[in-house]
Design brief:
This protein is mainly alpha-helical. The chain is about 60% helix and about 0% strand.
């Protein structure tokens, strides 16, 4: 886990939404809560303006911080922010936009009939090697150097986070 001083130094706003969130988190819930009036609406407006939430640093950082509030010491601030209604409402808005963008970017197979055989056949088709060469094979054969480095960065953070929740 990151020491709180390192976490504080590493966090810098990427736009108006993350800036407002970081400003609120730097205060206690008693004093900073008033700065979150309209935060959900701000997130919704920002989501409506960005061409692609998948690559928008402001909204991605905001969503990351909202998730990280549930891990001690990663995001600086009052522990009471974890369940603050304004933050939860904004997180739902961003999650829905993010999920919709992910679904639009990936092909979705038709939903199988609700029978044991049809569901099994659909799952085997989805996970078959002809459709999914696997991440390791993709990185080894087709990834650029920048993609390989980006994968390692994300994988390292994931491994650290999962090892010590």
């Amino acid at each position: 886990m990151l020491p709180s001083t390192l976490a504080r130094a590493a966090l810098s706003a990427r736009g108006p939404v993350s800036e407002r969130l970081l400003a609120a988190l730097s205060e206690s819930t008693e004093t900073g809560g008033s700065g979150l009036a309209g935060f959900e609406a701000l997130a919704a407006r920002a989501l409506g303006r960005v061409p692609d939430i998948l690559v928008d640093e402001d909204l991605q950082l905001t969503l990351f911080l909202l998730y990280r509030l549930h891990y001690d010491g990663v995001v600086p601030g009052d522990d009471e922010w974890e369940w603050h209604p304004a933050l939860l409402a904004a997180r739902v808005v961003l999650e829905r936009g993010f999920e919709a963008a992910l679904r639009a970017s990936a092909p979705q197979p038709p939903i199988p009939a609700a029978t044991r055989d049809d569901v099994a056949r659909a799952l085997f088709t989805l996970t078959g090697h002809e459709h999914n060469p696997g991440l390791a094979l993709y990185v080894a054969r087709a990834a650029t150097g920048q993609q390989a480095v980006e994968f390692l960065v994300h994988r390292s953070v994931y491994a650290l986070r999962e090892a010590d929740p």
